[in-house]
């Protein structure tokens, strides 16, 4: 069955107007025989297995988080000791989705690594009928842009809290070809994923090798780069913070830096550290609007300048806030693994400033190369330093300007720093090529599998 393309202009009888939404008239161009286009309810059976609170302890329940990509992971309860309302069981191979976030891709299959999980009523649960559909095929179907568009045409409710009801999901017509064809589509996807995993592993190994090479050139044994002591003793007078993780990382970083064959200097001794502008009603963009960097613009080792916002900065203040080529930008807050993530500014945008949640480091070029300091910040001694110094809140870790100034940096001669920067640049270019190849394969196979599910490309059993 071939469905006509969705027209830009059309007319509908009022009696046929089920929903006050143009997008609700979206139809998918499934290119399959009519008998193979069936509602999802033909392949899914709703489960209503309520968790018996009298028998199941809350601490033993495996609640999960369903991500927009369809993946599930155990939910962090943060010490929570109870849950209001009913909870429902879902088993490995079951389909579940978020009524609110399904339009963002929050629909997936419970993996075999999770034999049983618990979810609230906001996550309807379905068993996949084995004689009709393969769970892996259903998962791929959910990922197609055609299915996502159909879901988005069905949302209802108040703005920001729009839901897709189970009856609407169950009535979506989808291709359910013979199981042999479904398995062929899944097999093609899995073969591509194996290739992608191998290429990703190569890129990760190349990237890890950069850090090991830097440490080796600094006289630090790379084999001990990521080893944290499991057992250690500390004198009471040296107990700077009541945190085991802090002490472990501080000790590991100290042991590594003790091997360095070059003198150490605190970052504050080889550069100046400063905060940026605090956003407030008084500096909304006006006659002197300037582009400014937010935390979202500073990624690990790179800048994301896809969306740059503006802030008001008078001419008289620009000299003190303007970014200059070679400035290091360090995020003061993030997850524990990414706290202190650095990037470098290369004058990508004229007259650009930065917000106060980004720390700026302007390195003294007579003592150090900014790109050398950037590369060193990616190594394990620096990462352990940042994590050990980070102040942890519920969901965020942060460092301050004093923490950043105190970062110990091995300081070899400038010629050695140049050699390190050149080596890292060559290897990062190689990593970039590998990651681009991964991205290309991922895009190609996603397009190929989508065409197979649409029925516009043959999928041989």
Summarize the SSE layout with pairings:
Blueprint: E1 37-39, E2 44-47, E3 64-66, E4 72-74, E5 87-91, E6 95-97, E7 107-109, E8 116-120, E9 125-128, H1 135-143, H2 145-152, H3 166-170, E10 173-175, H4 179-217, H5 244-258, E11 264-266, H6 267-270, E12 271-274, E13 289-293, E14 298-299, E15 302-303, E16 309-312, H7 315-321, E17 328-331, E18 333-334, E19 342-344, E20 353-354, E21 358-363, H8 370-377, H9 380-389, E22 391-392, E23 397-398, H10 401-405, E24 408-410, H11 414-454
Parallel strand pairs: 13-20
Antiparallel strand pairs: 1-10, 2-9, 3-4, 5-8, 6-7, 6-9, 11-24, 12-21, 13-16, 14-15, 17-19, 17-21, 18-23, 22-23
Helix pairs in contact: 4-11, 5-9
Q: Can you offer a commentary on this structure?
A:
By secondary structure, the chain is an alpha+beta fold. It has 3 domains: 14-176, DNA methylase specificity domains (Adenine-n6-DNA-methyltransferase TaqI, Chain A, domain 2); 178-218 and 417-461; 237-248 and 261-411, Adenine-n6-DNA-methyltransferase TaqI, Chain A, domain 2 (Alpha-Beta Complex), CATH 3.90.220. It is built from 11 helices and 24 strands. It has helices at 135-143, 145-152, 166-170, 179-217, 244-258, 267-270, 315-321, 370-377, 380-389, 401-405, 414-454; strands at residues 37-39, 44-47, 64-66, 72-74, 87-91, 95-97, 107-109, 116-120, 125-128, 173-175, 264-266, 271-274, 289-293, 298-299, 302-303, 309-312, 328-331, 333-334, 342-344, 353-354, 358-363, 391-392, 397-398, 408-410. Strands 2-9-6-7 form a 4-stranded antiparallel beta sheet, with helices on one face. The model is unreliable at 1-5 (pLDDT under 50).
